[in-house]
Amino acid sequence: MSDKQLKQTPLFDLYQHNGAKKIIDYGGWALPVHFSSIIDEHHAVRQKAGLFDVSHMGEIRIEGEAAEKLVNLLMTNDITSLEINQARYTAMCYQNGGTVDDLLVYKLAEQTFLLVVNAANIDKDLDWIKAHHMDGVTITNLSEHIAQLAVQGPEAVNILQKLTDVRLADIKPFRFVQNVQLADVTDVLVSRTGYTGEDGFELYVSHDQAQALWQALLQADDRLQPCGLGARDTLRFEAKLALYGQELSPSISPFEAGIGFTVKIDKSSDFIGRAALMKEKQNQPTRKLVGLEIIDKGIPRHGYKVFSSSNQEIGFITSGTHSPSIQKQLGLALVQAEYGKLGTEVQVQIRSRLVDAVIVETPFYKRK
Prior knowledge:
Layout: H1 12-15, E1 21-26, E2 29-34, H2 38-47, E3 49-53, E4 58-63, H3 67-74, E5 86-93, E6 99-109, E7 112-117, H4 122-131, E8 138-141, E9 146-152, H5 156-161, E10 176-182, E11 185-191, E12 200-206, H6 210-220, E13 224-227, H7 229-238, H8 274-283, E14 287-294, E15 305-308, E16 313-322, E17 329-336, E18 345-350, E19 353-360
Parallel strand pairs: 3-13
Antiparallel strand pairs: 1-2, 3-9, 4-7, 4-8, 5-6, 6-7, 9-12, 10-11, 11-12, 14-17, 14-19, 15-16, 15-18, 16-17, 18-19
Helix pairs in contact: 2-7
């Protein structure tokens, strides 16, 4: 598929200028795998800071007198306790407990919320939300108007501070500030969130100001390095941050995927999937997302089958790679719960052979 057939973010024209390599089709978007190398960019984020174009993500605004009621019905997490300028990670579920999407909910004002959803799920999520529309609510897809940049790493706050008078160190995790000026770019929403396991910020800006912000960030400090999809995936993997379509899906519940903390069974109002999730929690999930380390040679990849030591198929790999930080072949696997104990020996089918592995602690990487 050519780039012209793929959707392009407003930063696409700058990719080549910044040395982007291997533009691929990612959920219908033309995005770079890396600029220098995946390993180099991974370590840059762990040690200094990286800049990501995540403008392919979707943004949906829900506002009106019944907006909070609708959002709380759709989300497994409790939205009623959100304060203005606070964000919350949550899931949307089907009635059977399977996952529609995992997302962030931003409370912009009383009865005004911004939902940040996965790029491949924008249309599906929008249809799901509209199917539960309430009177007094306006639902607007802003995805084509908002660009998103992420500055991630231990130096993120110091680098970004060079561009603004707003005291970024005062922004707590999962809090944000609206209408910030960064260099000559105005009306930026600055959120202290991320998807790498490091400290960092996500910056929401209008499409027409995205290139100016990207260039201002890279000019501000040479410690900031542009990064692509490859490092984004290895970083989130080490931190055990779920990727929809792998750790989460319509057939995988939040409890199974290890994000049960987003499910508030006892919140004051009902939500879609509550009965199924309550039953699953009471009976204990039959499957569990675990980490595993390959003892032999080989890298576990998405979809590879996992077997017990007695050759019984017990699950499958959701994500796997050679970990740049840990320097080991690691995987996340959804397995039958009884095989999820630390130290359990299993086998992974890598092509035509079974490779020895062991269940290990997650997340694989924790920020110091």
